[in-house]
Amino acid sequence: MISALIHWLDERLNLEGILAPFKHKTVPTHRLSYWYFFGGITLFLFIIQVLTGILLLLYYRPGANEAFESVQYIVTRVQFGWLIRSVHAWSANLMIFTAFVHMFSVLFLKAYRKPRELTWVTGVILLVLVMGFGFSGYLLPWNTLAFFATKVGTEIAGQVPIIGKPMMIFLRGGEEVTGATLSRFFGFHVAVLPGLVTVLIAIHLFLVQRQGISVPPKLDVQWTANPSARREMKFFPNFMLREMMAWYVAMGVLGALAAIFPWNLGVKADPFVSAPAGIKPEWYFLFMFQTLKVIPSKVWFVDGEVLGVLGCSLAGLLWLLLPFFESDHPARTKGWITGLAIFALAYVIGMSVYGYLAN
Amino acid sequence: MCADHTPQPMTSRRRAIEVFLGGGLLASLASFLYPVLRFLVPPAVIDLGGDEVVAAKVAEMKPNTGKIFRFGSRPGLLILNNDGTYRALSATCTHLGCTVQYRPDLREIWCACHNGIYDLNGRNVSGPPPRPLTVFDVHLRGDEIVVNRKREA
Amino acid sequence: MATLQIKRRPFVPARPVWLAGLILLGASLSYGQAVNSCLDCHSAQPGRLEVTPEKFSQDIHAQKGLTCTSCHGGDSSSYDPDQAMSRKAGWKGKIDRKQIPQLCGSCHSNPAFIRQYNPSLRTDQLDQYHTSVHGKRLAGGDTKVAVCTDCHSVHDLRPPSDPRSTVNPVNVAKTCSRCHSDAAYMKQYGIPTDQFANYNTSVHHDAMVVRGDLSAPTCTTCHGNHGAAPPGVDKVQNVCSTCHAFQAQMYQKSTHSKAFEDRSLPGCVVCHSNHGIHMPSDAMLGTGPSGVCMRCHAPGDHCDRARVDILNNLTRLDASIKDADQSLRLAESAGMEVSEARLSQDQAKDALTKARVTIHSFQAALVNQDVETGLKIANANLKAGQDAMVERNHRRIGLGICLIAIAMMLVGLWLYIKKLES
């Protein structure tokens, strides 16, 4: 029956023409091939986010008076509402985690090199957008933790010289975090960011399809010298079936986390209550937050926080342009970019742990 | 390669794959779709949100009586006066948090804990309460008495 | 007879002009007020004669335009002590203690006069004072008792609403204790001096000073301020009933009311003490050190049995509420949503509070009624917590089924891959 359907579509759309390149797509197989799954898992988690997000949209009400209660309603009254909500929250965190893993694996496997610089650039932008998803989505349940995390986060954004204040007012929808901020974040979270991310994912995937999967440099050299040593598998159906297995595993992990460790509601936000002690942002911002905290309040004549924000922004910009720093002689730059990657990984993990443990 | 294999083992191998794959696919899709479909069906209790609640039905309120109802996470007090007007206020005493009650004999709101008294506008007129009670808006919708928080100015 | 004279003498230019200029300069520097030689000299006096402009500027009378001469008489424009403090100019010197109430009363008991400054200020303080223990003893010649200035302070007298005022509710107990906790001072009167110490351990002190609840009782709430006197053994519950109305109502209708009255026992104070009133506990119904019933009642008699009955009921409800709390806590830590039951727990706790109030009727049946109401609610909440755990288990089972389906799929995919690649 399915083949009949495919035949019907093929008569009208010439599916053979569209699908032909995919039939020839291959994936290199080697010791480190497993890292190739992480991009796909991140995509899978994004799809889960879109689906659960749409389901939540059916009941969620943005607005300082109703947001918390609507989430409470979803979690207590709607059938399996607790599940959809917890899956959405867990998948968000897992997605950011796998995005980081994917990025670092690309870095260590040196897949960012020419001709794949744009893939890296779109990828880094996607990471930033995804963290924006996390930041905007976190506020939507309108509980105390989220309220103050948003306050602190937007405050930090406001530290950037000159453009910081207007940026903060733009983000907050005013001088303070209020219901207006919630409305705005809702708009970002369900309209602006999904649109941007979808376009960027499309570009990112198109580039990957067009350029094929990269191979680590040492292996690349070996295989170029000795083409018969090249090991690869067809994407369709071999790699895809394996990818399906990975996605099923991810689904299982997600379901288990959502059922065994459901996301809690918290307490409804009250702008007039003083901030609870030890406000921290979500874990994926911890390394930046902690960096800001360890910088002394005044460095030279420059305000410490401003220096920190500018420093982080500069680091981010350089990170974005990383592939362009690698010269055309891979042997020379391999060393320092790998070193930088190790340092970056250690820094992110170390500062996150530090930030988590510090009260 | 197939020469050594009799059709029998091949079929059982195939069957195993079919069972696991087909069954697994069906079962996993069902276990994903079932919660989603149940989710889509709106629950019987329509929560009107933390801003508004049906405090009582018109029929159950007698003149010069009060009724405690749940408003969000705190109790509220609904009063039907003798002249037919409704009053709704927060029922949490501003002194130490006890739940207040309507006193038909006094035509006032009374807190049993320390003899605090509020008038029908929520103003603290006697006893320890330091602040008035929050007053809510009441309006009728069919046979329901709906209470909601006053809009922010 | 001490009378008040407000003298505003016009400045007499009998001095050389430069001296007049200097004085004008001094006057303009001293808070823009008219010349006040009293303050200028007395700000440099030692010990009890010292009154500085800074101190006097805090005084409510000074802020209303009264000065030294308003009470003490004399001539505040002169720097010559003989002139400034001359009897001819009406100077009274240090006001004799016996004269103070009359002096203050010469304005404060005059409604027409006070109306000019604060129309809602009471003017019956002097009359009340005459009825008080302090007033009566003063009239009998005892100058050790409190007069107006002892409580209200003098020269830096602040209105009671000012938190720094000695008669602001949070400070009243300390003000009274200045005499009433001084054992040596109070020796001749034969009354206890432990009231302040006891009050500081009380729940009322805790409410007032620690929680900042200004409606909590202090000395003057029960004893009166100007008409200060103990309420009297048979009037105690009237005082307590001002706030604790329900308890007083029940007590009034109970057997204890007449029994205590007949024996001249001070009502509420018998069980709850007067100054060191602690947070009551169910242990007061017990037989331990805090137990109050067995001080009078014999073990095994009808009342003792009622006591045991009441105590058991209250303990049952308390335990039931704690069990429900525990169950809900467990459910919450498992991630289940039980906020509605949590809210209902408040109602159960209210029922327990009500039951404890009903103790004052001393009828076990009435207490039991309230306990039963509370038990119903607490048990429903316990069930809610248990149901939540059952639901949690259902979720785990659901998860298990889902994971089995996923496992099946994984096996199927693996086998299929193996087959494809063999």
Write out the CATH superfamily name of the domain at 34-223 and 233-275 in chain A.
Cytochrome Bc1 Complex, Chain C
Main beta-sheet annotation of chain A: 2 strands, antiparallel
SSE order of chain A: HHEHHHHHHHHEHHEEHH
Estimated helix fraction of chain A:
over 70%
Q: Overall 3D geometry of chain A?
A: globular
Low-confidence stretches of chain C: 1-8
Q: Return the CATH topology of the domain at 34-223 and 233-275 in chain A.
A: Cytochrome Bc1 Complex, Chain C
What CATH architecture of the domain at 34-223 and 233-275 in chain A do you see?
Answer: Up-down Bundle
Could you tell me the strand content of chain C as a percent range? Answer: under 5%
Query: In CATH terms, what is the fold-level topology of the largest domain in chain C?
Result: Butyryl-CoA Dehydrogenase, subunit A, domain 3
Whole-Å distance between the termini of chain C?
A: 125 Å
What can you tell me about this protein's structure?
The complex is a heterotrimer of chains A (359), B (153) and C (422). Chain A is an all-alpha fold. Chain A has a domain at 34-223 and 233-275: Cytochrome Bc1 Complex, Chain C (Up-down Bundle), CATH 1.20.810.10. Chain A has helices at residues 2-13, 15-24, 37-57, 67-76, 81-108, 117-139, 144-157, 164-172, 179-211, 217-225, 235-260, 283-294, 304-320, 330-357; strands spanning 26-28, 232-234, 298-299, 302-303. In chain A, a hairpin with a 2-residue loop joins strand 3 (298-299) and strand 4 (302-303). In chain A, helix 4 (67-76) crosses helix 5 (81-108), helix 6 (117-139) crosses helix 7 (144-157) and helix 12 packs across helix 14. The mean pLDDT of chain A is 89. By secondary structure, chain B is of the alpha+beta class. Chain B folds into 2 domains: 1-41; 52-148, Rieske Iron-sulfur Protein. Chain B is 22% helix and 33% strand. Chain B has one helix at residues 7-40, and strands at residues 52-57, 65-71, 74-80, 86-90, 101-103, 108-111, 116-118, 124-126, 135-141, 144-148. In chain B, a hairpin with a 4-residue loop joins strand 6 and strand 7 (116-118). The radius of gyration of chain B is 30 Å and the shape is elongated. Chain B starts with 6 loop residues before the first helix and ends in a 5-residue tail after the last strand. The model of chain B has no long low-confidence stretch (mean pLDDT 84). Chain C is an all-alpha fold and 422 residues long. Chain C has 3 domains: 1-94, no CATH class; 129-228, no CATH class; 302-421, Butyryl-CoA Dehydrogenase, subunit A, domain 3 (Up-down Bundle), CATH 1.20.140. Helix content of chain C is 57%, strand content 0%. In chain C, helix 9 (125-131) packs across helix 10 and helix 21 (302-333) packs parallel to helix 23 (364-421). Mean pLDDT of chain C is 87; it is low at 1-8. Classes of the chains: A mainly alpha (359), B alpha+beta (153), C mainly alpha (422). Chain B binds chain C through residues 13-14, 16-17, 19-25, 27-28, 30-32, 70, 73-75, 95, 98-99, 112-115, 127-130, and chain C through 213-216, 242-246, 339, 343, 346-347, 350, 353-354, 357, 398, 401-402, 404-413, 415-416, 419.
